[in-house]
Amino acid sequence: EAGVAQSPRYKIIEKRQSVAFWCNPISGHATLYWYQQILGQGPKLLIQFQNNGVVDDSQLPKDRFSAERLKGVDSTLKIQPAKLEDSAVYLCASSLEQGGVYEQYFGPGTRLTVT
Amino acid sequence: GNSVTQMEGPVTLSEEAFLTINCTYTATGYPSLFWYVQYPGEGLQLLLKATKADDKGSNKGFEATYRKETTSFHLEKGSVQVSDSAVYFCALSPAAGNKLTFGGGTRVLVKP
Q1: Between A35 and B29, where is the model more confident?
Q2: Which of B47, B98, B107 best probes binding to A when mutated, by most A CB atoms within 10 angstroms?
């Protein structure tokens, strides 16, 4: 079974530029998550989708971050304009409910450096 | 709200030593508990899980027991290898829902 795919793996941009990340979840997984992992910290949930609807975006800085999941499969996360503090690894995960428990499977992440 | 606290690292061990990483949580009800591992340059991988009190999760020689009375889920391994060098994250998801809350991570370095 193919895992969660993300691209690009690395991105370097200057502040105030825009950037987009792409995620393809595991086939059949209805729930998709985007996390931000700042160096030395645990991942923090930015947004959660169930199919193509948003379930939780309470931690998403909506003035600069946006995300969509068209057709309930692939997803993109965009930052516009980027700030220095957005430097982090952006992780995508997907999950399938099994016996009332959702196991999340993570992609390799995109490491963003904002200079 | 929900929170997870785990011991800070780095933890440096010699090969074949015993490893313990402490994890305690705050949550209402009966959350599910997880340990994830992140090897250098890779994404997070689920290491083990427990979904109810007194459950023991185990995988690859690692074990953790869900202790409701002490709100803990400590990770243990009896004999570590160099290949166990990684960052370990404790996490929980609430009884109703699937949002993961992570601890800050513990870096483990195993020396030959």
Answers
A1: A35
A2: B98
